[in-house]
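TASK: fixed-backbone design
INPUT:
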């Protein structure tokens, strides 16, 4: 979980392609943004979107914990899950298109948002956050990460992002804004899951990634 952002580094390197296409007028920003969002989704075969759909369907099924967990196990996508997928993809594509339309250097913030969205997995698996079930991915990963490594990793990611932003001609403080937004978005979900479900599941972790990415990209558009 601590090293999760490193897995995305090869994909982040591919961001340069659509950036160059947009900069030279070969592709509209929204088309290039759509390709980037699709690449991120395909990199996990839609696993995190599946977790988002299941989590939203479960949380909207009622306030009974067992019923919510049962709905999440079915794997069917209901109206809440479908709506959640549509909304996050819409916001992600729109925010990425906005960054592309400004300058290629603004894709540094998009790359940072992707890395930060994977970093939030460590926050969900830190000690003190219980699993919702005694089995499954949530039970296997819950409590597996200490708080000190989580905070340390957040600091390293923020510092590296600040250096990259400064080198790209962007405000250095854009990095903590993006990283903090990702963490805040995931924290809101984790807190809700603990209250409603009793803890985290694998679906909740996947949903946290998508929510963190969406909030981080939206925050990145606020950077001048």
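OUTPUT:
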């Amino acid at each position: 979980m601590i090293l999760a952002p490193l897995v995305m580094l090869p994909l982040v390197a591919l961001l340069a392609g659509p950036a160059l296409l947009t900069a030279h007028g070969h592709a509209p920003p929204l088309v290039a943004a759509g390709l980037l969002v699709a690449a991120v989704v395909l990199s996990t075969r839609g696993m995190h979107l599946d977790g988002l759909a299941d989590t939203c369907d479960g949380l909207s099924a009622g306030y009974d914990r067992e019923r919510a967990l049962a709905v999440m196990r079915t794997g069917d996508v209901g109206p809440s899950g479908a709506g959640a997928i549509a909304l996050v993809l819409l916001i992600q594509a729109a925010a990425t298109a906005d960054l592309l339309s400004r300058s290629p250097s603004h894709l540094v913030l998009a790359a940072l948002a992707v890395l930060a969205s994977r970093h939030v997995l460590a926050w969900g698996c830190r000690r003190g956050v219980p699993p919702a079930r005694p089995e499954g991915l949530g039970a296997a990963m819950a409590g597996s990460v200490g708080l000190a490594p989580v905070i340390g990793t957040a600091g390293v990611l923020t510092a590296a992002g600040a250096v990259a932003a400064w080198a790209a001609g962007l405000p250095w403080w854009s990095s903590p804004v993006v990283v903090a937004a990702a963490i805040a978005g995931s924290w809101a979900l984790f807190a809700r899951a603990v209250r409603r479900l009793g803890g985290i599941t694998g679906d909740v972790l996947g949903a946290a990634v998508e929510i963190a990415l969406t909030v981080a990209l939206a925050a990145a558009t606020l950077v001048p």
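COMMENT: The mean pLDDT is 86.
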